[in-house]
Specification:
Blueprint lengths: L1 H6 L2 H9 L8 H23 L7 E10 L2 E8 L8 E9 L2 E9 L2 E2 H15 L4 H16 L3
Antiparallel strand pairs: 1-2, 2-3, 3-4, 4-5
Helix pairs in contact: 2-3, 2-4, 3-5
Length: 146
């Protein structure tokens, strides 16, 4: 939790995942969604990262996409061909970068979430509060181990 709060720009990721539906939501609805998304994202990362406790990532390369926008590639150290390969999208300025997305096995998490959220919102009249409530339900389920 503390790692994500310090090094991830969860607000930027949350707003990205809303896509075009952000325009139809009030500021209060957006802030409520960002708070629910933060809890949801932390629950997911905590659950997924548990299985890699004690492992080390080795940076293999980085690419500057544009000024202040980098993609950093890494893999699980000492695993050879079976190494977990990940990439992190970092935004910021010198000395203050935060990651906004993670790629595992070729899938960018925020892009995948945006697609899932768009589908949910499309089926639910574009109502962001319904998505917010669903994220809270999912977070409770993840934390309960379901």
């Amino acid at each position: 939790r503390s790692f994500l709060e310090q090094y991830a720009d969860i607000r930027a990721a949350a707003l990205f995942t809303l896509g075009n539906y952000r325009r139809g939501a009030s500021e209060a609805e957006i802030e409520d969604f960002v708070a629910a998304f933060k809890d949801f994202a932390i629950a997911i990362y905590e659950k997924r990262l548990e299985q890699y406790a004690g492992q080390t990532l080795k940076v293999t390369k980085s690419i500057q996409n544009k000024p202040g926008d980098f993609t950093v590639y890494a893999e699980e150290a000492g695993k050879g061909q079976d190494a977990l390969k990940v990439a992190f999208r970092l935004l910021g300025s010198e000395g203050s970068y935060r990651f906004v997305d993670v790629n595992v096995a070729g899938v960018w998490l925020s892009v995948e979430q945006r697609d899932q959220f768009s589908s949910f919102l499309s089926s639910n009249g574009g109502k962001v509060p319904l998505l917010t409530a669903d994220l809270r339900r999912q977070t409770t389920s993840i934390r309960a181990g379901r």
